[in-house]
Design a protein that fits this description.
- 27% of the residues lie in helices and 23% in strands.
- It is α/β, with parallel strands linked by helices.
- The protein has one domain.
- A hairpin with a 2-residue loop joins strand 10 and strand 11.
- The N and C termini lie far apart (49 Å).
- About 10% of the residues have low confidence.
């Protein structure tokens, strides 16, 4: 990798010299232009083998929408992103599992570090561009005629089925002008008054699967259970939880299939990930699974789900058992602010807004690196779920601050400390 790094640095140095001789301010890392190319949809519950995509020709402004339906029109459909070097961590599986492309039942046996090109995570314009791409995944139509869906070969015929668009995971694909790099933006959680009930129900199911101690079973999550892994009072079966995360009703499974199919369409491209809220969590899990540079926005704590899938979690982290050694993932960056209770892991409990809306968000620890804007101190904001909106974050946080905050690792964080987790076969 050393010779690749030297080559890129040399090219950058020569460009800077040329710019300097022209009398301009030298740029250390020139921006590249990304545009929306495709929209992908992968089914989960009723249509687990369905994967369709539509090519998108954008000639006008793009819509940036949040989960509440608020829309900010981005008049320039181009996104400017700068590169930087990044160390990534990816799992290695045994040779027995190598032939199974999804490694559905496998756990990593070791980890590899790679040095590769990634986004400039401290550059304000780059972070803003990623946030806008994350927001664009909420928009159903973007200055285009009706999307013409193309089936990715699956052997199943869903041509005459209705409602498939409301069942599954949606990802928007952005690429640079040379198709050297692709950014996949995963849609976050829908709200009940904007999207069909099937879509909302599936989002809530995955939120509660990823972020609750035991599938939202037990007090105070009455009526919200998404699996049957509880074995007693504050006792849960970890093997059962892992199996639930790997089923075809899980967005994690759908995201892996989506990723594999997109890499077939862009076989020579680097893949980067982004997403907001639930979309950020799914993006993070995908980034941890395949060692992909990932920038998330207001994602609720994801270490709980990552640990159950055998992915990299923070040092000294283990659910229910603090003090065990974890592994730092240097390529996953979580951007958020202190007035968002969902990002901060405080939107839980019997009388919380999240509980009243059907969410059991008990997790408190993030993977990777956190870049936290202190809006409570700097702007006087109080914690409010309305501060979770990606449009509000773009307009009132990312665009307002002059600089990206210092990004730090999370250490000595514990999830579900009152729970005991067992392994082995469960009913």
């Amino acid at each position: 990798m050393a010779w690749q790094r030297f080559g890129v640095l040399l090219a950058c140095a020569l460009r800077c010299v040329a710019v300097y001789e022209a009398g301009q301010v030298p740029l250390i890392t020139p921006s590249r232009v990304f545009t929306l190319r495709q929209v992908h949809h992968h089914g989960v519950h009723k249509y687990p083998y369905l994967h369709r995509y539509a090519d998108v020709q954008v000639s006008g402004p793009l819509h940036i929408t949040d989960e509440y339906g608020e829309t900010l029109i981005n008049h320039d459909p181009r996104y400017f992103i700068r590169d930087d070097f990044m160390t990534t961590l990816r799992p290695v599986y045994s040779s027995h599992d190598h032939g199974h492309r999804s490694q559905d039942d496998a756990m990593p046996i070791s980890w590899l570090q790679d040095e590769r090109r990634g986004p400039a995570v401290t550059d304000k314009q780059t972070v803003l561009s990623f946030a806008k791409m994350a927001a664009n995944a909420y928009a159903r139509k973007d200055n285009s005629s009706e999307w013409k869906w193309i089936d990715v070969g699956s052997g199943f015929n869903y041509t005459d089925d209705f409602g498939w668009e409301n069942d599954g995971l949606r990802g928007h694909v952005f690429a640079d002008e040379q198709n050297q790099t692709v950014v996949i933006s995963i849609k976050g959680t829908s709200v009940s008054w904007l999207d069909p009930p099937d879509t909302v129900h599936r989002d809530v199911l995955n939120d509660n699967l990823f972020a609750s101690c035991c599938c939202a079973q037990g007090w105070p999550w009455l009526g919200k259970a998404v699996c049957n892994c509880r074995t007693g009072w504050n006792t849960c079966n970890s093997t059962c939880l892992t199996a639930a995360l790997r089923t075809r009703t899980s967005y994690y499974w759908a995201a892996k299939e989506l990723y594999h199919n997109i890499t077939m369409l862009y076989p020579d491209a680097d893949i980067w990930m982004t997403g907001h809220s639930l979309g950020g969590v799914v993006s993070s899990l995908l980034g941890l699974t395949f060692g992909l540079p990932t920038l998330t926005f207001e994602a609720y704590p994801d270490a709980l789900a990552a640990s159950r899938l055998g992915l990299a979690t923070p040092p000294d982290y283990s659910p229910g058992r603090p003090g065990e050694r974890g592994l730092h993932a240097p390529h996953v960056y979580h951007y958020g602010h202190t007035a968002d209770p969902i990002f901060m892991g405080t939107c839980n409990g019997l009388f919380s807004t999240c509980n009243s809306w059907g969410y059991a968000l008990e997790s408190k620890c993030h993977t990777g690196v956190q870049c936290i804007y202190d809006t409570a101190k700097d702007l006087g904001w109080r914690q409010d779920v309305r501060a979770h909106s990606i449009v509000k974050v773009i307009e009132d946080v990312l665009d307002v601050y002059d600089d990206v905050p210092e990004c730090t690792r999370e250490t000595q964080c514990t999830d579900c400390g009152k729970w005991k987790f067992e392994t082995g076969h469960h009913g």
